[in-house]
Design a protein that fits this description.
Blueprint (H helix, E strand, L loop, with lengths): L1 E3 L2 H9 L8 E6 L6 H14 L4 E8 L8 H10 L4 E6 L2 H4 L3 H10 L4 E7 L3 E2 L5 E2 H6 L1 H4 L2 E5 L3 E2 L2 E2 L2 H10 L2 H8 L3 E6 L6 H4 L5 E3 L11 E8 L5 E9 L10 E6 L10 E12 L6 H18 L4
Parallel strand pairs: 1-4, 2-3, 2-5, 3-4, 5-8
Antiparallel strand pairs: 6-7, 9-10, 11-16, 12-15, 13-14, 13-16, 14-15
Helix pairs in contact: 8-9
């Protein structure tokens, strides 16, 4: 999947012939979580692109913590079969485009959209006065096809990024997983830590969450980690500052069950499946070790591991 960080980059790449096809099947939105609602849009775009169109995600980036980091979002969009991700900063110039200017300059002039999939709540243009119905009503004039995709629902309510965020902030990882279609991830390269876990006989891997990423409450979680080769290893993860040993940087430190290979430098993704307890400062490393043993038993029980 090709990634362009501005519309100018996309336009220049199209001019160089880098895109699979000049015309595109497009979906638009923030895609900060790539939750099940987003995935429904991606599926439509992938299907439409089979007729000789580039599958394009036009992601509007606002300044807020994302459920996924940009790297994580790109990985899931690639997995969904998208050809191109175009990131568009929410600039003053972009914000002031009228709905017609947005269609003419961006959808037609730059993206060459022939198919557009949006949700029922899609809004665009200055003061968000354009909506999905307006986009559909102008399809004949501009020569594209529009599909307005109904919202996905869970437990009787619409799936949305707001709902995912609320679940994460409460530490309700089970609800977050139902909305996302996968466990909440922290992905990155395995870093060297302070080796406290190794000293306690419980070696760990350390990930540093990327900046501007929404994190659930600091604490201990039952987790599963996806390795570079696709293997999935169960474990228990501490998300926080490790107050007992005085760390100043937040990290996701995971003890992988019955796993002893060297992962330093590799890219992994840890999925948080169940909140076990809040982060705690212990009086001694011995007290910490005893609690970690309890956390491991709790995580194994939750993950159904003997």
């Amino acid at each position: 999947m090709k990634i362009y960080h501005t519309l100018n980059e996309y336009e220049e790449a199209a001019g160089r012939g880098e895109l699979p096809f000049r015309a595109s099947a497009v979906t638009l939105g923030k895609f900060d979580g790539v939750h099940l609602g987003h995935q429904a849009l991606l599926k439509r775009v992938k299907e439409a692109s089979g007729s000789g169109l580039s599958a394009v995600v036009f992601a509007i980036d606002v300044r807020q913590e994302g459920i996924l980091s940009h790297r994580e979002r790109a990985a899931f969009l690639k997995q969904a079969g998208m050809d191109v991700l175009t990131e568009c900063p929410f600039s003053k110039e972009f914000m002031n485009l009228t709905p017609l200017e947005f269609i003419e300059r961006i959808l037609i002039g730059i993206l060459h959209a022939e198919y557009i999939a949006v949700g029922t709540d899609f809004r665009f243009g200055h003061k968000r006065i354009g909506d999905a119905q307006l986009l559909a009503s102008l399809a004949g004039k501009y020569g594209y096809r529009t599909e307005i995709v109904p919202k996905e629902r869970y437990a009787g309510l619409e799936i949305s990024s707001t709902r995912v965020r609320e679940a994460l902030l409460k530490g309700d990882m089970e609800l977050a997983e139902q909305l996302l279609g996968r466990s909440y991830p922290v992905a990155g390269r395995v870093m060297h830590g302070n080796h406290i876990g190794t000293g306690l006989g419980m070696p760990t891997i350390n990930l540093i969450p990327e900046e501007n990423k929404l994190l659930p409450p600091r604490g201990v979680y039952a987790s599963r980690t996806v390795l570079e080769d696709g293997r999935v290893i169960a474990g228990v993860t501490n998300l926080g500052y490790k107050p007992t040993v005085g760390s100043s940087m937040i990290s996701a430190e995971t003890n992988l069950f019955d796993f002893h290979e060297d992962l330093y430098g590799s890219m992994v993704r840890t999925g948080f499946e169940h909140f076990i307890r809040p982060e705690t400062k212990f009086a001694s490393l011995q007290d910490l070790a005893e609690q970690v043993e309890k956390d491991i038993r709790t995580a194994k029980e939750y993950l159904s591991i003997s």
